[in-house]
Amino acid sequence: MSILQYITWNVDPEIFSIGPLSIRWYGLLFALGFLLGQRILTKIYVAEGRTEGDVDVITLYMIIGTVVGARLGHTLFYAPDYYLSNPIEILKIWEGGLASHGATIGILLALWIFSRRQKFDYMWVLDRIVIVVALGGALIRMGNLMNSEIFGHPTNVPWAFIFVRNTEFSQVPRHPTQLYEALSVFLLFVGLYWLWNKYKSALPKGLLFGIFVTALFTFRFLVEFLKENQEDFENTMALNMGQILSIPLILVGIFILFRVWQNPKPALPGGRLTAEDQPKAKANK
User: Is pLDDT of 284 > 70?
Assistant: First the structure.
């Protein structure tokens, strides 16, 4: 097969720079995920009797949970020895190093705090937030593509990419795993939004969250077989770190879906806690 049948990827990760300030595709797409997500979430919340103010508050929690969780996830899961020996390096987010599994944990914790403080039903919040998280995840993977990072093993498939700007590996055609993940998560976003738009409050509580977690991390587990390992220590492992971290999340998703199948409770109107739940929330404050 001729090399001309492959895609030569030579995109500059930097859009433009002004003095020491540079604007990069990854940062733009990361921010775009929050911007679009806020607009979509506003539509969802208003349609179910909530306010735009609720979205503003939850967006703040989401930003903090995502950034802090993703950064700490990278430092603890992929390079704990280095970062624990150089803790100041943890703060240098601009140098790269964000882990999606850490972001997941950070988001779950941040939204739990949000739900407790704002008197929301936690699962109602999760069912709706995963719609926009899926869209954000697709945009972030596109950012990885623009950075020529997190790509796959060498391959001879006709849609393989040659990542010219990444000199760490030999310049051979590789699986564009960033595109695989971006497409799969975008389709997940479309499916989740369609389900919500068609059924809204008639959806059983936990269904959207269960579908999201199970589908997202099952695909993540499978696509890792096509990826280059992110860290050298993974080369001696039967499963890499991304796969190991995906397994418990897949099990959580399956458990949630099983509970939904056993007892399909309708969602609370507008995510408001019932009168029975309100005293419990106050007592555990």
Answer: no
Find the helix or strand (DSSP H, E) in which 167 lies.
none
CA distance 65 to 71: 10
174 is known to lie in a ligand binding site:
no
Report the range of poorest mean pLDDT among 11-25, 33-47, 92-106, 137-151: 92-106
Backbone angles phi, psi at 163, to 5 degrees: -85, 90
Strands 14-18 and 21-24: antiparallel
Give the start-end residues of each E strand in the chain: 7-9, 14-18, 21-24, 161-163
Strands (E), 32-97: none
Pairing relationship of beta strands 14-18 and 161-163 according to DSSP bridges = unpaired
Task: Compute the distance between CA of residue 51 and CA of residue 43 in angstroms, rounded to an integer.
Answer: 9
pLDDT band at 276 (very low <50, low <70, confident <90, very high): low
Quick one: average pLDDT of 237-257?
A: 93
Instruction: Find all residues with CB under 8 Å of 49, minimum gap 6, and list them.
Output: 269, 270
What is the model's pTM?
0.86
Mean of the per-residue pLDDT values for the chain?
A: 88
CA dist 256 and 205 (Å) reads 10
Q: Where are the domains of the chain?
A: 25-283
In whole angstroms, what is the distance from residue 10 CA to residue 131 CA? 32
Per the DSSP assignment, residues forming a β-bridge with 16 are: 23
